[in-house]
Records
---
Amino acid sequence: METRHSRREFVRTLFVASQAALAGGLLSGCASVPAPTAASVPPAPAPDGLKFLVFGDWGRNGDKDQIEVAAQMAVAAAALPAKFIISVGDNFYEDGVASVDDPQWLTSFENVYAAPALQVPWHVILGNHDYRGSCQAQLDYAKTHRRWNLPARYFQQTHALPGGVTADFFYLDTSPMLAEYQHDARMGPQIRAQDVPAQIAWLSQALATSTAPWKIVIGHHPIFSGGFHSDTAELQQHILPLLHDNKVQAYFNGHDHDLQHLVQGKLNLFCSGAGSQVRFSFATQYTKFVQTTPGFTTVNLGADQMEVRMIDHQGRLLYAVSVPRVV
């Protein structure tokens, strides 16, 4: 993807040139991007709603701020309390896991996220680094470990909200959609074995037949992004039209190692890929918030509003926004 690589080189240059303009990790020239606050975590949660955490790009054997993020996740999960945790992929670095007995299940997952409040179901998708190892091992681990919920490479869940309202969650496997991975030495064989048209057809039908007032889609790769990897042309072509046509309120992703909120049309895009090591980020035309810092996202999904908060590895509330169900 020559266009993507050119854009990536441009934003690298922009990042280096704009170091003097950075304030607290934010591009100071963007008025729409608020500076972080040092509010204690967590703020008082609303009494009703489906409460959960979202984060990704985390499994580093406790290194690169993973331990600190996990500690603050435990605080937030206990206070909400969180019903489940969504992992938006790149669960194990650098090369996924080799088997269900891989030591990383303990050193990067079980031992790191051991707090009682984190012993809730983890709804998991695969990232590109997971494809460098055995994706089947992650699917098989779910069969014997109740916390790890990965029933298929892509799947749907329905959750009940207060007042009889429901929310449908659609979990995607985005790595096979990217042309640049097709001939990758490590990922290629597993990537090419996936039926991308079948997954897109599934998503199209699932969204069209959903009667839930809330529709939320989760993928590893960003559609639009002010991060290291920038936009994903394949998702803009194949996934974005489905989200708009079916009035999806939010898309959550990782891949870029930062925290972001972007709004494109009526679609809210949240990047929560800061579970451990972070990379530079910048503001785009769609950016409402962006910051390069380890952290995670909390969500309180009510009948009419979705409260989203982004929290860093020191427990500071960086950003909060309320997304209405109907715009």
Note: The chain has eight helices and 16 strands.
---
Amino acid sequence: MNKQCTITVLLLKAFFVLFTLSFITSCESNRFDVDISGKDIKFTAERFDRDFTKFKNENYSEVNTYLKNKYPTFHPLYLTNIMALGHPKDPATEKQINLFLNNSDIASLYDSVLNAFPEIDYIEQDLKKAFTYYHYWFPEKHIPKVVTFMGAFNYTVAVSDSVLGIGLENYLGQGFSLYKEVGLPLYKIKKMEPEYLVYDAMRGWLLSEFSDPDKQDFLLASILEFGKALYLMDAMFPNRPDYLKIGFQEKELQWCLENEHHIWQSMMNSDMLFSRDKNALKKYTGEAPFTPGMPEESPGRVGNWVGWQIIKSFAKNNPDMTPQQIIELTDYKSILSKSKYKPKK
């Protein structure tokens, strides 16, 4: 073969390799990696935590009116539900707020929050991008007002019809000494890092919007409802790490990936998928340092991860269905069957 023929063959081989790689890439492309560059949404994030401290140094009535006007939904929610300090219109609430803000431990915690989060620009930017994807896929859905608050560990995320609240004291880093002092379990402390904040907030909103607790009376239904929310997390955070979307540590997710077949076999062999036993639900979906009956390297809530994998498998095998259509499905046995979910050994 002469030199010219050799070059021609090499070029054809190179072209074939590039074509093959291009084809594989297109087949495995992320359906959620859509162009949102031209989209613009109305989005705000406000510092309720900072504004609330005005009660400490300014006229109570004036601050109460200010907060009522600026946070018409969240102000009463915070006082009555999150902190149980009383209703804004109850005169006795003033005393409770003063006791709360002048408590030395609370004052110290507030200082830690304000020092760790002098600004929330990056939180606002990340959430605005996530909600822009949200608007792309669900244009008819309301976009909430985001507020940050200090809830003394009562709530990580608080959700109403129009507001998404984020408890900043839950993201001061696992080295924050007060976490151990107040008795928080180590497995939770390890995930009280700022990198989880935006994901926890968005997951909380998606669960409130799309997950119906009344439908989750048996294990398969419960894990698939949570799996749908995690599938939407893929849409809100395309090309972001999966361990953050579900709220695992990176090594916990890796354990799930390496043991997916065994996890599924354990759930199938225990005949739990259609069980309405609350202990079964708690075992596979409850917060815990690890899943009972599995190695200590396993994460808690492993059933929710399995539900996510089933929904992703269903979407892959039913490519004509939109995210909206998938989210609306409630025939859980049919979802499992049509997902063709079968982890490799």
Note: The chain has two domains: 45-208, 211-339.
---
Amino acid sequence: MSFWQQVLSAGGAGFLLTVIVFVLGALVLFAIRPAERSRLRAALLLFAISIIGVLALASFSSYGLSTEKSLYRWTEWASLFCAGVAFVNVASVFIFTVFLEALRLKPAHVLRELLRALSYVVVGVFVLSIIKVDVTGIVATSAVLTAVIGLSFQDTLVNVMGGMTLQTERAIGVGDWIKIDGQEGVVTDIRWRHTSIETRNWDTIIVPNSVLMKSQVTVLGRRAGQPRQHRQWVYFNVDFRYSPAEIIDIVESTLRAEPIPNIAVSPMPNCVLIDFKESYGSYAVRYWLTDLAVDDPTNSIVRTRIYFALQRADIALSIPAHSIFVTEDDASRRERKSAEEIEKRVTALRRVELFEPLTEEEQRALAGRLRVAPFVRGEAMTQQGADAHWLYVITKGEAEVRVSADGNVSERLATLGTGDFFGEMGMMTGEPRTATVIALSDIECYRLDQEAFHDILKSRPEIAENISEILARRRVELEAAREGLDEEAKLTRKRRHQGDLLRRIKGFFRL
């Protein structure tokens, strides 16, 4: 028998076909699956070792070595085992990366490795049975050895089980951004023993799976049914000279005006006042980051937009707390500041028709009794039905008047702006508020209490008649617009209202 016939005999039926099919299949997978080339190279190497084993068996036969000899049998087993492992590797690449991916199925990495390892064991046992080795005896003998190995590699087994649990439960997957023990990074691989995490600093953290199973792990940016995005906080400080509502409006407007790369459109970025410090307010911008790898660069863009938006509004970021403001304060300065404030208040009072009957001296006296009363956007300046005996004069901003009837939804009645006033009936007669006034923007206004007006009325009671005439006229004008009254009806109602109002004013102020 020739050597080639010995090779075919040792390789078994279909040896050439098996070699051709294996090599062609491995080469095709090598071309279409570059990521699996290292495994395919190992498979080709093992298959080459198997062929060498077949050639060795043919040589043994040509020299007359019996097939019952141990050398022949174990060489045969090694050759078959290498071929079996090579086939398992090539088949696993085809099944997991070609066939299952075509069905849009992606088993866990640990599950793939577990199936491969199980296949290796099956191949080993099958080959042993082919060469007529007593597998039962080996299994019985290896039971004690298995127990010893299990105790020796207890930590390793815990890591392996942890990796299997992570993969099967899918609590953490490749591509997830996680935070553990203060470290943040993206999961790049989950192996039998460890999980690899790449940080933003270009480092790779190797975390044993048992540690992951025992520690509290935060999966960043994951919410059921929502896209992956993580909320970022950017802090800045502005001193108390500027209104919080104004700062929030400026910052939110600039961040929402034009899309910023890697920032989610929904929820929209927002600005909030976090805290009051010694000399400034602490603010924070909150936005949702869609690419968790670029947190610092995106924070930088947000800070830049905040800075320039505040610069355009002539608002500077807060001066460090250790800075000291020194102002020379003397009697002349205080008098000058007081005179400027009085002039400002007198100008505001002169816009109010109600105070036209007052002399300049009385207006100045009243100006000294005014109180500054600011309101923030959305705040109720007065509530319908409330007992409030003061009048408001708006010097900056807008507000709206709402009236509700029988507990129904309030209806918008009018809009008030700079120079307008309201609450005169409550101050002059003590009647409850007939409407609710809501600030549409930040409001700067003065408030005048009943007590401040009391001294003037005491010294000149005749002013009450002039004021009652003005109040009556304003009320009749409103009724005429609502009911379409003619001139005679307007005069009649005016006389009636004036008499009633004068009586109520005198009673309220005890004139």
Note: The first helix runs from residue 3 to 11.
